[in-house]
Design goal:
About 40% of the residues lie in helices and about 15% in strands. The protein has about 240 residues and is of the alpha/beta class. The protein has two domains: about 5-20 and about 90-235, Rossmann fold (3-Layer(aba) Sandwich), CATH 3.40.50.1000; about 20-90, DNA polymerase, domain 1 (Orthogonal Bundle), CATH 1.10.150.240. The strands form two sheets. Strands 8-7-6-1-4-5-9 form a seven-stranded parallel beta sheet, sandwiched between helices. The N and C termini lie far apart (about 35 Å). This is Phosphoglycolate phosphatase.
């Protein structure tokens, strides 16, 4: 099956970049700073996908018998953001990401990145990985009033680029991406190497799966050439 789309939107963590090692390290350094026991990396990785606040909440809940106070959570958030800012640049793109984005761009597809990660981490990560120039629009977890799995970020990208949701595809690694795409009326393709809170994706719920992103071009019909296609990246904030 080949999909006729003009816009391809990509999740960040677990789809484009392998950010789990740095996230887990920052979370454990946060816990140590609060006098709490560290957690296994695999456990923290299973918390990725719903945004930094949710990840911090889950880490705290697993390391203490009672719910954290607002003051403790604020301290935890400050520590986590500081530690993550110091090591986020070490995250690497998954195999096949760069050639896949290059080919899609050359073939005339509009590309966007949509993530639940805060903008202050999203933009530097894309820059340091050499991926920033591929995307016309980048929507982060704090860019809009709602984030994935709500469809708003995807619909906003479609509206910004003047493309119908039925002509758009979401590529991600989690149920969060699947729910957002289906609610928005977009196609959805998933990769198996991501995080998805430690669970395997039910392939029956998606339009297609690819082992790595270089396979994506084989699923797509070439879009019509667009006049004046080259645009600067748009930050939604």
């Amino acid at each position: 099956m080949r999909f006729q789309v003009r816009l391809v939107m990509f999740d960040l963590d677990g789809t484009l970049l392998d950010t789990a090692p740095q996230i887990a390290e920052a979370a454990n350094r946060m816990l140590v700073g609060l006098g709490r026991p560290m957690l296994p990396q695999a456990q923290i990785t299973s918390y990725i996908g719903e945004g930094a606040q949710r990840l911090i909440q889950r880490c705290l809940a697993d390391s203490m018998p009672v719910a954290p106070s607002a003051t403790l959570f604020a301290d935890a958030e400050r520590l986590y953001h500081g530690f993550y800012a110091a090591n986020a640049h070490l995250s690497q793109a998954f195999e096949g990401v760069m050639p896949a984005l290059t080919q899609l761009k050359v073939q005339g597809y509009r590309l966007a990145c949509v993530t639940n990660k805060p903008e202050k981490f999203t933009l530097p990560l894309l820059q340091q990985a050499g991926l920033a120039d591929f995307f016309e629009v980048v929507v982060s977890g704090d860019s809009l009033p709602k984030k994935k799995p709500d469809p708003l970020p995807l619909l906003h990208i479609c509206q910004t680029l003047g493309i119908l949701p039925a002509e758009a595809m979401m590529v991600g690694d989690s149920e969060t991406d699947i729910q957002a795409a289906q609610a928005a009326g977009c196609f959805v393709v998933t990769v198996p190497y991501g995080y998805n809170q430690g669970r395997a994706i039910d392939v029956a719920t998606v339009d297609a799966t690819v082992k790595q992103l270089t396979e994506l071009v084989n699923l797509l019909e070439l879009p019509a050439l667009l006049s004046g296609h080259t645009k600067k990246m748009t930050y939604i904030s």
